[in-house]
Structures are given as C-alpha cells and as structure tokens.
Amino acid sequence: MFGGCSTGGDQVVSAAREAREERAAARRREAAAVLLQAAVRGFVARRKHFRNIREQFDSVLSSFSSSTADVVLPDPITAFTVAARMLRSYNPQHDQHRLHCYARYLVSSLHSPGLQQRCMACSLSQQHTLSWIQHIKQVLVLSCQTLQQLSCEVSSEGRLLSLHLQLLLELTSTVTWPALPAPLLPPLTRLTDNFLQHLVQRDLYPTLKRILLKGLCRSKPLLSGPALGTVLTLALRPLPSTVSTATFTDEDTAVKAAAAAATTKVTKSRSLFPSVSQSATKGTTNASSQKASPGCGRRGEETGRVATGVSAFPQERQLLSQFLLHFLCVPGVLQHLTDMLPQSTVLLQKKNIFEQCVEFLYGEQRLRIMFHTLEASYALCLLANTIHLAHHYVSAYNSSTTSHPCNNTSNTEALSKAEADAKTAQEEAQSKQAFDETMFRFNSVVRRLLEKCGEYVSSKQGGSSSAVCSKSSGTTTSSQWHPVLGWFAQQLDQHLQESLTYVTTQLYLLWSQPLLNTLFSVLPTLLPHHELTNKAETSGVGAQTVASAAHFSDSGSRPWSIRRIFDRKLSITGGGNSMGRTGDSVVSNKLSSVAVQQVAAACSLYYLAMQTLNQLKMDILTGLCYKSGVVVQLWWLLQSFGSNCGLKNFLERLAQASKPTSLECHMIILFCDATAHLVTVLDDLELYEQQKPFTTNDYSMVAIFLNTMCYRLLDQGLVDSRHVWACPLFSAAHSLLSLLFRRNSRRPFVPSEKVWLIPELKLSTFKDNLMNGNIVEQVMLQTLPHIIPHEERVLLFRANVAAQKASLEQRSSTPQFTMITVFRTRMVEDGYRHLNSLPPNALKNTIRVKFVNEQGLEEAGIDQDGVFKEFLEETLKRVLDPSLNLFKMSSENQLYPSPSSVLTENHLELLEFTGKMLGKALYDGIVVDCPFSGFFLSQVIGEQQSALYSSIDQLSSLDPELYKNLTYIKHYDGNVEDLGLTFSYDEERLGEVVSHDLRPGGKLLPVTNDNRIIYIHLMAHFKMHTQIRDQTKAFVKGFRSIVNPEWLAMFSIPELQRIISGDNVEINLKDLRRHTHYYGGFHDSHRVISWLWDILDKDFTSDEHSKLLKFVTSCSKPPLLGFEHLEPPFSIRCVEVGDDEDTGDTVGSVVRGFLAVGRKDPIHRLPTASTCFNLLKLPNYQKKSTLKNKLRYAISSNTGFELS
C-alpha cells in the first residue's frame, strides 16, 4: 500500500543529491579557473620578470658575447647586480650563453688596470661582501658543471672550455692578477683560497678528471697544451708545496700536527678578514649538506665509490687523495704533459708531488682504500703515472748531483774553505738521505700495487673465463683482453681502450736505465771495484754503472739511510753492512745483510712486474738484460755468498719461511728469468767465442748451482712435489737449467758430463723408491733426469718397455702376434697396408714376417725376430731415402721431413707410418742407422714447446748459408733497412716463387734495427718448424703411439739419437768377443776365431771395425750400453758351402768345422752375413792371411752381403 509513496520519496532525494553535486562541481570549476588564471598570470609575470632580468643583463654584459678586446667594462656593482639576479633564475637551456658572457667579463675585469673596475671591488664594499662571495661561489660551481658538459671535439666548445678553465684559474689565486695594494693582498689571497676550498668541496677534481678523460683518452689527444697546463695548475693549487716532517713518523702524530696547523691557519684568517672567514664557514657548511650533481654513464657509480674512498681518509689527507683519485689515475696524463708541456715537470718538482704521493701511498691502509676505489685498470694508470713521476724525480736528482749547484754563494764565500766543504758534504748527505728514503718508499708502493693488481686479476680469472656476474649492475661481464694484464673478467671502458698505449709507454720507464741504476744503486757497492772496472766492457755493464759503483765505494762514510729503514722495517738479525773484504777481489756478503736485502727488494719489484704485467714480461727482461749490467752483477753477488753461491744458507732460510716467496727467492727468480732470456737470444759466436756477458765457466757454475738447488728443493721437501710447477722458484730455476743443459748437449761448455750428476744421490735408494711409487723420485726423473747417469736411464727405459710388454701379455691368455706377408719388390707398400691400420697395442706385440721373393715364391725359414728386423731396417731405409721425397738430407747428412713432401701421394699417412716403424725399432731395442737432425728430434721430444726454445740455435745444422746470413744481419753495424728485407720468405716450388709471411702483413713490414732479432728468430722458426709443421706432426703422432712421450723426456737430443742409432764410441772388441755366439763348430778357442780376433785387434783400424759391424748388423755403431744388449746377439757360424747350398748346421758339418777336416782351403770364397740375425758366415780358412784379406775385401766392397 506504500509502494507509490516510496518511489516518489526516492526521486526527491535523488534530485537533491544531484543538485548538491552540481553546485560542488561548479565550485570546483570556479576554483580551478581561479587557479589556472593565477598560474597563467604568475607564469606571464615571471616570464616578464625573467625577461626583464635577462634584458637588463644583456644590456649591461652583451658586449662580452664574443671577443673582449676594446670592450668597456661596466660598473662592477652593476654587473654583479644584474648577474646575480640572472643566476637566481638560471636555466642552462636559455642562459648558458649568458654564463659564458659573464665568464668573459670576470676574466677581463680581473686584468683591468683600475682597481675600481675590477669585479673584486664588490668585496671591498661592506654592503655587498657576503653576497658577492656567495655569488662568485655559485659562478664557480656553474662553471664546473659547464666544463663537465663541454666537449673538445667541437672547436667552439673547445674555446669555451679554455674560457671556463681560465675563469677557475683566475678566481682561485691572485698570482695572475695585476699588482694589488699591499694591504689588500693578504685578505684577497685568503678569499681566493676560500674559493678554491669551495671548489674542491664541490667536485673540482672530478670535473678536471672528466675534462682529461674526454680530452686525452683517445688515440689523438684533443685537449690543447695551454688547457692541459691550466688543468694541471688547478689540480696542484690546493696541494701544499712541501711534505711535513710529521708524515715520516707515525700516523697519529701526523694527524695531530696537521690538525693543529689547520686550526692556526683558520684562526689567523678570521682575525685578518672576518667577513670572508664567516662566509667561508657558511659556504663550507652549505656545501657539505648538498649532494653532488649526478654524471652521465658510469659516473654515478664511480662518484659514489670515489667519495667513499676519499671520506675514509683524515681531513688533511683528502686533498692529496683526491689528486690521486682524479688526476694521477687518468691514463697517460703525465705522458701528455711531458709531450705537450715539458716545463710542467718543473712545477711538479716544486710542489714535491712525487714525494707527497709516495708518502701517502706508503701507508698500507691508505693504499688499500685507494686500490679498492680504483680497481685494477685505473690502479694500473695510477701506477704508470707514479712511475713517470719517479723517472722525472730521479732525472732531476741526477742532474742536481752532477751540476752541484750552490744556492748561497755569498755565505759560502764568507766561510773558510774547510767550512764550505763540510757544509756542502752535509747538504749532499741530507739530500742523499731524503732521496734514498723516497725511493725506498717508491719501491714498496710499486710492489704492493703490483701485488694487489695481480691478486685482483687472479680473482677475476678464477674458475672459468666465460661469464662473471656484476653485483652492481646485475649484468654478465665476459672476460676481456687487457693489453697489459691479459685476460680477466672486467670490461674496459672507452677511455682505457684508446689510451693504454700511453700507459704502456709510461710503464716502460720502470725498466729504463735511470730507474734501474737507482733501484739497484747499492748493488755495485757489494762487488769488488776493480772487478767492475775490468769486466765492465765484456759484461755489458755501462760506464754510468761503473761510475755509480765507484761513487758509492768511495763514500763509505756517508749515512746509509736505506739501511736504517731496513733495520727499522725488516728486523733482520745481524743487520748492518756484513760485507767484508779479504783481498782486493774477494768480497763476502751475507744473505741477511741489509744491503743485500735492498737488492732483493729491487729484484722483487721487477719479479712482481713480470708476474702482474705479464704481457710486458719480455720487454721487462730485455730492459734488465740490455739497459744495465744488473744481470751480471747479480751473478757476482750470488758468488759472493760463499760456496755454491751460498746455497746452504739460502735453503736454511727457505726452510724457515712459510712459503718460497721471500725477497731472496725473488732475487734468484729474477736472475734465472733474465739469464734465460739472455741465453736464448745469444748465438754461438756470442756465447762460445766472444763470451759476453758471461764466460763459459760462468755458465758452468750457474748450471752446477741450479742443478743442486733444484735437487735439494725436491729432496728436502721445500716444494710440493705434486704441484712442483706452481712454485715460481723451482719453475724459473728449472727453465734456466734446462736451457743450459740443451745448449751444452749441442755444444758442450761444462768441463765434464759428471757436472750434471749429484754426488749425494744414491742410485740404489733412488731406484727402490722409484719402484715403490715415491712421488719425489718420480718428479726428479721427470724434471731432472740428467742427475742420473745415462746408462741407468737407458736401463730404466728398457725396464719400462719390458713392464709394458708384460702387461700386454697378461691381458691375453694366449701369445699375441701379427703375421704379415711382404713382397720384397714392394716392401714399403705392403708394410704400410698391413701395419698402418693396426692399433698401437698390436704393433707393440710380436710381428712375424714372411717374405715373397722376386719369383713370387715364399722364402723358407722361420721368423724368430730376425726376419722382422730385416723388414724394419729395409722399410726405414727406403722411406727415409731422400729420393722418395718424404725426407731430406741436411748439409751435415742428417735427416728431416721434406717441406715438399706434399707432392707425394698420402705423404702424411706415410710419415705417420714411418714414425710408427721408428718407434717400433726403439721399442724393441733394434738399432737402425738413421741420423736425424737435432732440430727435428727436439720436436719429437717436445722441446720446441718451451717458451725459451730458440730456433736459431740449430739452424746451422739445416742451412749453414742461411744461418750465416742471419748472423750477419744480427751483427750488422749499419741501417738494416738499407738491406731491403721484409718479414716474408720466398721459395721456389715447381718453377714458381711462393711467398710466405713470417707474421701477418709481413710483406709490407720492413726489417729494422729494432726488430731484426724478431725477424731472425721468425725466419729460423719458419724454416725448421712452420714449413714442416704438418709433416712433423704426422711423424710424431705415429712415433708417440708406440713410445710413451714421458719415457723420451728422460733423454737429451744426442742421447735419443744414440738410442736410435747406437753409441758414438769406438767398438770395444773385448766386449764384442765376450758376447759373441758361435755355431757350425766354431768356438772361442777355435783357430779361425783366434785369428779373427787377433786380426781385428792388431791389423784392422777403427774405421774397419765399424765397417765389419755394419756388414754384419747393418749398423756401424755399437749398441747402447754394450753388445750385451744387441738383439739378436752377434754370432759367427762356420760354413762349408755357398749360401745357395747352405742348409744349416748338421752333425757332420759341426764336427768338420770343429776339427777343421774334410775340406780344402776355401780360398775362392768370401765371408757373408745375414743382417737379420746379426750373423757372420765365415769359411774355415786354412791361413790367417787368407782370412784377413778376404774379410777386409768383403767389408770394404760389401761383396757377399746378403739379406736372405
């Protein structure tokens, strides 16, 4: 009943609600309209106001929009007023050109002759002082921000960059201002200092760094010389000019002293110029509460990291830390300064920048914070610039000591001569002490920076080189190639990529002659003076080094500041100078002496440089070897330690250390690396004839020292035998030892081969431990096989072969052998077809051969290894024949793979087969007459894989003419470019000239005096390796499939040749007779046999002995270790009939041969031989003269030689 009323009431309520909403909407629209109108009116008013401000500014300062020549300066107060109003509403998009105008005005006004026309006149007004100071600070900050945005690539922006740099330069010092009244100079100086302080707090150094990165870090610098000089001046201006003496004491004292000095300075400033002091305090407070403007790219992250690093330092050290972080870390900045502004080095020296930087980085915590802030790549740039500073510092010091300036001539003239000399000596001593202390700290700083860079790179190389996740960016960073540090997982930014050439140039200064002589300055004082003088020329020691040695030797009374530092830092027992002389030439030094420790510290520096700057290792070694006499002097120093270079004391100190990384270890490692580099480059003329820089006796002594040291390091457990190559000391010593051993093997320089043996090594104990699997003996056999006599190593080789044969036999229940049928007319083809496809284990087992003669009939007989020996010898003889073109003969009649073997079908497969056959001969102990070239055998045993392998050493055995020509180029005194050589090699092949590049683009790369050593080694490497790489690889593959490469590592190249072809000694007839077997009735006391041995002993020459051995065994050399090891044994058989009628021994033939009855004298028959059985078939001659003549004729003409 109330339905209709309810509907009507709802309509009334809804209408009322809609009316209220409409009124509310109207009010909102009205309010919005008012708001919009107010905003528009405000916007229009502000635009009008700003336009008025800009118009006022333009009316006053628009004349400074370009050149300021002949421009009338406005009133300073007026200019300040319009500029301040403009800067309150500064918009970079619209007002940046006005900022440029104002900058030009400020620079021009500062050089106005009238004081009232200069802009600083505003500071003289009590009304405008504070506001003008704040205004100038704002201008300086805006100028810094503008500098960060400008680019040197655009010429117009380059001019603006110079303008704003000049503005910063003018407003932060009164030095360039025209003359000021004396009362105004102190307060205005403090005022500019306040501006400078404000700029430093507001990112002055990051701004300068950004300018340098954009202007210098590219292949061709864009920053002009004057602009670079301005940046340097601004960077140096906040820094103090001298190093406080407190900095050389403990850290707390230095901080207190600096804080007291700062407090005194601030107090004086406030008393002289209160308004400026108040504004400075206010400005500093405001600046500290403001945030730095964000940069572009990686600058935000970088700024945060740098700010953290800087804030970690005390307040008084933050200026220097900012200088290091933002100036000295710029890649190659000092190199550019040296190139563009050579006079800038004077400014650096006046500010004592090098001393300040070294003292700052000498603190362990400060250096750690600095490195963490910069990371490896930019820390490397800091290191390079520090090295450049050190180079300038040393050069300046050397110049000052040479010229001996006298700064106080009038006072000196007033003094007596004795007093003047005493004063001069005292000043020199103080200067020398300060110099030594600075260089000591420099050594420490460089070493620790290198260590940290190395650790950082190692951590980034850990695991795999695929990808490393960056926590900061969340991205994946793959390993990148660094031209100095190698591969590690850190991306190089554009600035580093384009400027690392300059950084590398600076790093080269570390091993320049001035720094080498300075860091090793104490080394000559530890050696006999007359020995230095006499050997300077022959050892490569320069005159400057000798003079330095004499200078230090004559100044023994001077204070040794470096030694006092070592006494304080190293806590070495028995410190002080332990150098003693027992005559004119004998000098005895102790390893623990302070002077020796200083030399070791210098060696440690260069060792760490080679480890960290691994891509520059060869350049560092070249500098050490050829720019100074350090290597030779280090050897003299090692000899002065006592017997065998003080090895006993060294090992005792090493045993006490936790790991072999002490300074003494670094000294020996550096000597080994440098000497190895030197010996690798030396040719035979220099090493054996000229004997520079070492004599052959020196090399012999070095070999003895290193041989004993490597043995004792292993024997005494001073290195981990399971990871022996992880020990840098053992690795370096072993590398040099191996190099000397190889050179000696090719051309001996040691007095006796017994030098390589270790007297204290007991062979019986060694072999027992080796059989028991002792790891130490196994490592010794692998790394130092020469300490074991050659005969014992051959027995070990044969024992290894026998053990492997036994192991193969145990795997099969029945004897395994392979039977092949070979036609004599195609022995190589059939042998290749049957044997090349067999697996290695089948080739190592017994192989039976049945020959088919020329008539197609199988030859009678049972192969008891003799027939296979015949097959093996004939096969090798044919495949090694140069006419087959698989191998060639050198000028010394030695074999090596033919470069033109590619013309032979299946040449690589045939070479692999040849390697297998030679390996089989070696495996079975069959001696074959195959003389191989030494350079080829070096590749067979893997010597060419060593970084110290030099191809030039053995080139004379391949091509004496080419070796002579290359040696001529090496010692050519004139300009090598006149010879018209390039890095290419031309050879004639099938009537065509084929050119080979020795390096990419070699045809266009001329050979010069600087790169001729590289050319010589590349040419030799091409001839002996590159040209026959594929052939050698195929041969080695086949050879090593039979003979374990580890077994070959026990032998040198000559020793391996002796195993293959027999011993290079005269035939021992007694040994041959003792191991000869007799058949057919012959015995050792038989008349014919007695005649035979008597003829060989008294009538035949050594050459005829070799001919007899070749006649019977097909090899003219005796087997290694004697005829006991000849397989089959040497045998002599009595024969009654010719070979065609010979049916072997019968009872009758044996009796007749034994009793010498039943036959006439066989004067018409000659001795014959079966080489497959090493059998001499000798008729039963009735006269001794007949035996002598017939045997001599047979062995000389091979008459009666038969192989069936």
UniProtKB/TrEMBL annotation:
Keyword Transferase in record: yes
Q: What keywords tag this UniProt record?
A: Ligase, Synapse, Transferase, Ubl conjugation pathway
Q: Does the keyword Protein biosynthesis apply?
A: no
EC class name: transferase
Pfam families reported in the protein's UniProt record: HECT (PF00632), IQ (PF00612)
Q: Which domain of life is it from?
A: Eukaryota
Please give the chief subcellular localization of this protein.
Answer: other
User: Which GO biological-process labels does this protein carry?
Assistant: protein polyubiquitination; regulation of signal transduction; ubiquitin-dependent protein catabolic process
Which Enzyme Commission number(s) are listed?
2.3.2.26
Query: Could you tell me which pathway this protein works in?
Result: Protein modification; protein ubiquitination
What residues does the HECT domain cover? 839-1204
Which transformation does this protein catalyse, written as a reaction? S-ubiquitinyl-[E2 ubiquitin-conjugating enzyme]-L-cysteine + [acceptor protein]-L-lysine = [E2 ubiquitin-conjugating enzyme]-L-cysteine + N(6)-ubiquitinyl-[acceptor protein]-L-lysine
Q: Where is this region: Disordered?
A: 277-302
Composition bias, kind Polar residues: at what positions? Answer: 277-292
State the SMART domains in the record. Answer: HECTc
Give the active-site positions.
C1172 (glycyl thioester intermediate)
Q: Can you say where in the cell this protein is located?
A: Postsynaptic density
Gene Ontology CC: one annotated term: postsynaptic density
Give the GO molecular function terms. Answer: ligase activity; ubiquitin protein ligase activity
UniProt cross-references to PANTHER family, sorted A to Z: UBIQUITIN-PROTEIN LIGASE E3B, UBIQUITIN-PROTEIN LIGASE E3C
Q: What is this protein called?
A: Ubiquitin-protein ligase E3B
Species of the source: Hirondellea gigas
The opening ranks of the lineage are: Eukaryota, Metazoa, Ecdysozoa, Arthropoda, Crustacea
